[in-house]
């Protein structure tokens, strides 16, 4: 048996394999942020395709925290029904399903005023955000907790807090975006405070698997590097977070040089440095590449994004390639494989 198709248990959630569908915004919701047929077909197809865990795209905890006016939303109770339909379509295939809870902060291009730790625009193309007051920061924390409650009502197996890619929580973590002088800015522990409060508030209402997605390298002078994220990840472990989903970049608009497996060393450093399970992501496209990462214990889960847009049946092909095993192919499709 391959390592990729060895089941794994994370805080009570058993994954049938280690293939994760990374969160990917589809920008296909209506302006109210509701699920529609696109989302249902898109996620159910990857479940038929044998993925072990689907993480639903960045879903906004506040309306003005959307990246675009067409992001999925979870800021209102009316979102629960649609999200639960996605869950219902995915679960019969033995795939577990999580949701990424997100707030875009200064990178919001949606209606409303973007907010951030400090009034610094992401780039010339973006609006200057409004600096959040302390009370407003507490409001953001409550929005994440309410969203987690709704995720639970919708039947999700797992929650991922989006603290990566330069969105609101990442803006607080980064000295490049956070120039506050109160207890939410300054040293590492102050910049970590919002994430800590969000994790604690979510854990009040959610006792299932909890992931945090981070950008473990900011590729910019004066920004956070991997050492900071080993430190943050150790704190997250103490707070009861189960896994770090290790991405990088997008805090400032600098280009990133990417190549196959370019973020795997970051996942590896966090896994050992903070002694916490990690998911590796970024230009992992072949079953052999995924297997090497797991065999060498560089990460615990393999997260795939674009390759699953090209090939929703990637996991079925991978199990055939690694094990010559067609047992995951749905009986209706057996003649095609
Ligand atoms: C269409 C698209 C939408 C994305 N949306 C999100 C998102 O909602 N949340 C997130 O954390 N990352 C998002 N990402 C980043 C991916 O999850 C992933 O980290 C990145 O594409 C690198 O992995 P890959 O090389 O397997 O594509 C998105 C990527 C793509 C291509």
Number of domains: 1
Return residue spans where pLDDT drops below 50 for at least 5 consecutive residues. Answer: none
Provide the structure class: alpha/beta
User: Can you list the strand order of the major beta sheet?
Assistant: 3-4-6-9-10-11-12-13
Number of DSSP E strands: 13
Number of helices: 11
Bound small molecules, deduplicated: flavin mononucleotide
Characterize the biggest β-sheet: 8 strands, parallel, barrel
Q: Could you please say which CATH topology applies here? A: TIM Barrel
H-E string: EEEHEEHEEEHEHHHEHEHEHEHH
Query: What is the name of the CATH architecture?
Result: Alpha-Beta Barrel
Fold blueprint:
Blueprint: E1 8-10, E2 13-15, E3 19-21, H1 37-48, E4 53-60, E5 72-73, H2 80-90, E6 96-102, E7 115-116, E8 130-131, H3 134-154, E9 158-163, H4 168-173, H5 188-191, H6 193-205, E10 210-215, H7 226-239, E11 243-247, H8 264-273, E12 278-281, H9 287-295, E13 301-304, H10 306-310, H11 314-323
Helix pairs in contact: 1-2, 2-3, 3-6, 7-8
Bound molecules: flavin mononucleotide.
């Amino acid at each position: 048996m391959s390592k990729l198709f060895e089941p794994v248990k994370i805080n009570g959630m058993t994954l049938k394999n280690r293939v994760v569908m990374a969160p990917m915004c589809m920008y296909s919701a209506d302006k109210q942020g509701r699920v529609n047929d696109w989302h249902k077909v898109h996620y159910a197809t990857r479940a038929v395709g044998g993925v072990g865990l689907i993480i639903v795209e960045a879903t906004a905890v506040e309306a003005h925290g959307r990246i675009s006016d067409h992001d999925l939303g979870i800021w209102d109770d009316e979102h629960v029904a649609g999200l639960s339909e996605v869950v219902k379509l995915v679960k019969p295939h033995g795939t577990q399903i999580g949701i990424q809870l997100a707030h875009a902060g200064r990178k919001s291009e949606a209606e409303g005023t973007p907010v951030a730790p400090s009034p610094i625009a992401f780039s010339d193309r973006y609006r200057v955000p409004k600096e959040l007051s302390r009370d407003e920061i507490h409001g953001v924390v409550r929005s994440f907790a309410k969203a987690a409650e709704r995720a639970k009502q919708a039947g999700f197996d797992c929650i991922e807090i989006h603290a990566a890619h330069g969105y609101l929580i990442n803006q607080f973590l980064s000295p490049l975006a956070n120039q506050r002088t109160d207890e939410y800015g300054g040293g590492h522990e102050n910049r970590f405070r919002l994430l800590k409060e969000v994790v604690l508030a979510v854990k009040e209402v959610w006792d299932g698997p909890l992931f945090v997605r981070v950008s473990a390298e900011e590729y910019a002078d004066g920004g956070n590097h991997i050492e900071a994220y080993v430190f943050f990840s150790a704190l997250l472990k103490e707070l009861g977070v189960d896994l770090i989903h290790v991405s990088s970049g997008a805090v400032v608009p600098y280009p990133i040089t990417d190549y196959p497996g370019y973020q795997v060393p970051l996942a590896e450093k966090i896994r050992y440095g903070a002694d916490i399970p990690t998911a590796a992501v970024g230009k992992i496209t072949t079953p052999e590449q995924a297997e090497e990462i797991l065999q060498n214990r560089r990460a615990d889960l393999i997260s795939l994004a674009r390759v699953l847009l090209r090939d929703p049946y990637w996991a079925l092909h991978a199990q055939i390639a690694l094990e010559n095993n067609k047992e995951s192919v749905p009986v209706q499709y057996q003649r095609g494989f």
